[in-house]
């Protein structure tokens, strides 16, 4: 199923007048504070976040999985789903594939389908955390860090194959997330595991095309529960530096121990020009993969405040690759992704409203109270009319969830695909 511009316009018509008065009121208020409202709306309209192919089906836990019905069961259907989200939000103009789950059969047909849905291919993700059918070696005891050279070689080759697949689709980056680690003290030699990982990553890096980037993701625990080889941003940063200029750290919001100051990590990485990629989600306990902004919206705002500062003041850092990396055990995955995009845009818009000049002055004067006031002034602004205006200007829906429901998208998908289709992936 596809949603046409006309269908969206029709749904928008009913709420357009209300939006106009809300937007005008906010625009006037912000204008009187010296905010360039048009510039903010343009930035919001330009901001695009990739959707991972594995987020389109209902997630699950090791205790079970509850289907949401009408889920995509092949790459074509996954692209169609992202196309639906993008037509409603105008914010999801890219899809991120996971190999081998998403290997295209017909590359040209897949590229055409993506283009018809106005999508590009974001980072390709390798998978050395699962054993593949007929694979010679097993990743039970690690992949790039494995003590067995045969296993390391297989994992390196897999990453090189993933890059080749990505090249055929027009991707420009490879994301490496390793499950490697140990479950019990004494199982691994930490130094050897680190050294093998560095050597393997360097080998992958050597066959990276000139205009590609490599993103190295970190995570403190799970699936291993005693140690993880790439456990934190410092480890990822060291490995990226060892590889070279095209290698970067990737921050996944869920991959931190509780109360870690993620905004400070973001600031440091950007200052060093090494923040390459970003995965959005939220968490209460660990890598919960909850909807971004659903648990700690103020933290998300503080992180965006550093991202906005870095994008303006750190030309040494490339424009980061944005992606949602969440799961939705009980929600309609497409509705959850729409909520995620809204939360991301909201935090971004609020961060754009921070009076950076006044903040600098207050910091120099050590006026702690004013510093806090300035951040909270921006955070407390209801910026949703700005998001709606950005969507309206780009042909999206003023209220994407309402539009999704009134256009009966899920019902059509169930009719098209059947109730019990199953997506490949996590
Ligand atoms: C596992 O924690 C994970 O969520 C990583 O964040 C990866 O990005 C993703 O799975 C897919 O491999
Ligand atoms: Mn991730
Ligand atoms: Mn994760």
TrEMBL record:
Coiled coil: none annotated. This is Sugar isomerase. The keyword Nucleus does not apply. GO terms for molecular function: isomerase activity. Gene3D superfamilies: Divalent-metal-dependent TIM barrel enzymes (3.20.20.150). InterPro entries: L-rhamnose_isomerase, Xyl_isomerase-like_sf. PANTHER family: L-RHAMNOSE ISOMERASE. Keywords: Isomerase, Manganese, Metal-binding.
